Amino acid sequence: MKTLSTLILIFFSTLAYAQESQNKSKDPVGGIWSYGGKTALLFNQSAFSKWASGGINNVSLALDVDYEINYKENGWSWDTKGKASYGLSYLEGDKFLKKTNDRLEINSLLGKEFSDTWSYSSILNFKSQISRGYRFGTDDEGEETRSLKTHFFSPAYLQFGVGLYWKKSKDAWVNIAPFTQRITFVSRQFTNDLKNGKTYFGVLKGANHLFELGASITGFYKIEAMKNVFIENRLAVYSDYLGKPENIDFDYTLAAEMKVNELISTQLEVQFVYDDNAVQALQAREVFGIGVRMSL
Prior knowledge:
Elements: H1 2-13, E1 23-26, E2 32-46, E3 58-73, E4 76-91, E5 98-113, E6 118-128, E7 133-138, E8 144-150, E9 156-169, E10 172-185, E11 209-226, E12 229-240, E13 249-259, E14 264-275, E15 279-295
Antiparallel strand pairs: 1-2, 2-3, 2-15, 3-4, 4-5, 5-6, 6-9, 7-8, 9-10, 10-11, 11-12, 12-13, 13-14, 14-15
């Protein structure tokens, strides 16, 4: 709870306005569409030869795609953001490639304004992964082994909620949904052989989904911390009324990008996740790289 409180404090205490140019076009009925995004290809490589302090030759490659579509007309707004990230790494001597990142997420929010910054809202969120995930180990002979742990749509999360939406700009918003349903989908190949009393991402033996009803808070803000240095924050919090409401799930991501020029940029992404149904501990991930950046 201390970690969650700190993340929420960071999110709201640094909430600020940032504007980024986008493509815009008018709808025949008078609405305004805006759309845009970016894609980045990150590459890291290290090589050693008789290096005194040691080291392992390695190479990694990651692709990150971020895109958004917005529509506004007569007090109605529809904001959709999609993000996909995937990365692989190879260490010399390893038998298998290993993932460094694997994320697929879509957020879509429909709002109807009742003041300059507040709207009634409906929000839809989908999260999954792109490829299979493995648990790695070694056998009795010291050979590297792997066993299937996850794959696309297992797990997958579909979340729908209604509530209130505060929006200062497309780069600074918070949605509060006191009535939110969340469905976790999994493949029965992971649940059919579960031991009694065990679950797979909260899903019981022989089942393929888990239904939850609770409350959610989601937010996003982006700032230009200094010239050509952009910081994005994404926060999602969920509490299940039907299960253990005191076990609050959260997903916080901080992404920082520094533009070297129109094509080259460096990126740092740090993510903290707590999901009692997945791992009963704080999950942390950090990815840093330099690569090619293109606007979409």
